[in-house]
From TrEMBL:
Keywords, alphabetical: FAD, Flavoprotein, Oxidoreductase, Signal
Record-listed FAD binding positions: P586, Q587
Pfam families: GMC_oxred_C, GMC_oxred_N
Family assignment from sequence similarity: Belongs to the GMC oxidoreductase family.
Gene Ontology terms, MF aspect: flavin adenine dinucleotide binding; oxidoreductase activity, acting on CH-OH group of donors
Domain of life of the native organism: Eukaryota
Protein name stated in the entry: Alcohol oxidase
Residues of the Glucose-methanol-choline oxidoreductase C-terminal domain: 454-594
Native source organism of the sequence: Exidia glandulosa HHB12029
All copies of domain Glucose-methanol-choline oxidoreductase N-terminal, residue ranges: 55-336
Names of the cofactor(s): FAD
Active site per database record: H542 (proton donor), H585 (proton acceptor)
Amino acid sequence: LTITTSPASIAGQTYDFVVIGSGPGGLTVASRLSEIPSLRVLVIEAGLDQRNNSLVTDPGNSGSAFLGPGLSKLFFSAPQNDIGRQLFIVWGQTLGGSSSINGMQWGRGAKEQYDAWETLGNTGWNWSNLSSYMKKSERFQRPNAQQTSAGFTFDASAHGFSGSVSAGEPNPLLGTGLQFEYQDTVKNATRTRLPTRIDFSSGSVNGAGLFQYAIQPSPNASTLDNRRTSAADAYVYPFLTTRPNLTILTGYTATRMTFTTSGNSAPKATGVEFIPTAGGDTLSVKVAKEVIVAAGAIGSAAFLELSGIGNKTVLQAAGVQTVVDLPSVGTNLQDQFFNNFEFEPASSAPYIPPAANMPPFVSTSFLTLAQIVGNSTAGSLGKSLTGSVESRAKDAVAKGRFSSVNGLKKMLRVQADLVVKQNVPVMEFLGGPASFDQIPATNTWSVTPTLLQPSSRGSTHITSSNPLDPPTVDFNLLSDPFDVSLFISSMRFARRIASTPPMSTRITPGGETIPSLAVVPSNATDAEWMDYILANYLTAAHPVGTIPMLPCDMGGAVDEKLKVYGVQNVRVVDASIIPIQISAHPQATVYGIGEKAADLIKADL
Ligand SMILES: Cc1cc2nc3c(=O)[nH]c(=O)nc-3n(C[C@H](O)[C@H](O)[C@H](O)COP(=O)(O)OP(=O)(O)OC[C@H]3O[C@@H](n4cnc5c(N)ncnc54)[C@H](O)[C@@H]3O)c2cc1C
């Protein structure tokens, strides 16, 4: 295996597979394809190999994404929500992609949500099948004696133990007593029989439990040598002295594919062009079999558009010649978003300072609509969610946020069923005796409501043919009335959590520091809450859906083999293909998509 910043021996060569981007999608599929010695595989990654950078390796730095130039790509969205606010857009621009800088949270969505992908027309994409691939990617670390005595439980049937991505809990596991208190608090606040200590990889995610992490636990608790597991740790570094057929070029940005067309057959990708990420001359390689686009949900849509695959009006405006008019590319964008509450600890509350090489001490909980708003409001909200599918679909398509009214109607109906009939969790309430974002580290208790499965749809498109110009990203979150009602109710519910025992006994009465009762009083109206939310919410940096896997006549951009419609030999293997958002942090799912894609490609060889 070669990892190099020098294109000298690469430019002009022919590779069977050229993979664009080295996140969980790209590296999983590249590594699995390179198991076949006769295949020559090239990965082109815009960022650099940062394997010795403690901002990557140290789990204590897992909130550092925003601090590290050279580690992440950072720019601003289009002005949002009619108030002109621009949101951060961030992804890991380094070997391993966002898995090298993310929060490391490890878990899967609700079973029913993956089954819904199949209901949408993607044969073979269901919980049973995809969870087997998610397990294949996983090397779950069984708890040691200290972790067991700290209360770490897990569902063995939910995990894989011999895969590539090491996952589990840090060693030692600290602060669990207070975290279990947080879980009990959420249970008390919902007034339901909410399960606690649940395993968020099990497909049954309604409940509260400890965060699990993509982590390599310290071999010896006294050294506190916990390390992040990135996609590079899992799928590249173990093969440094083997796999001569796998080459990774870092520091270069792929700018477009070139195609040939013969007769009536669909265009065929024959080459990939790339430039130094810092700017410079264009180089190219030839492609013998396929291009695999894995540049993340924003980067992959931009790369397809730069290559002439996308909505021809968008392409024309950007000065790019159309190869395939595929209008859904860059639409259907669904991120998750959150707002943070912080509380001053009571003087009697124990404080566990963040330790080096330790992720933050937080627990999480995933709640259904009824658990947050109560049965009767859930009934009326659910009714209007289901009843407004057609008008919402028409409105979003008219505004360019999807390409097919019928396709979006089906997606929104499926999403409404998941919320109303199947009771999948709609919100995450992360919290406990630490802030999720521990920089700067302070003694604080937090509750962070996060909307998991937006009904709102956004879009992302290139605006010029210059590959170094960032695309426009219009998240368009909180445009759907259901998302607005749900999020406002969830902000009120976060306060309810904080005023419920046992957490209420751990914080100073009236000690809410963010947003604070002075800024949002306890009797705030919906409009007052909304003003605060719009000025303060942040995206979770979990974008999906921009190159949706759906039947073509429903507005899909890739088929169930992840092949881009209208061209012969281009697949997309990353978070872009997820048609509807899941109730989870996405990386474990993207690793599963990479594993499944590798098998689909091998079967086609
Ligand atoms: C700050 C942050 C925190 C997160 N926290 C969590 C978490 O705790 N748990 C979780 O499950 N998920 C988390 N995520 C999300 C998760 O990391 C992503 O969903 C996942 O990494 C997506 O994988 P991917 O392969 O689709 O894309 P990415 O991981 O984004 O990888 C895409 C790669 O492509 C490269 N690239 C882009 N364009 C080009 C180009 N033109 N040429 C060459 N290379 C290119 C990028 O540099 C990048 O390396 C977080 C993400 C961020 C940004």
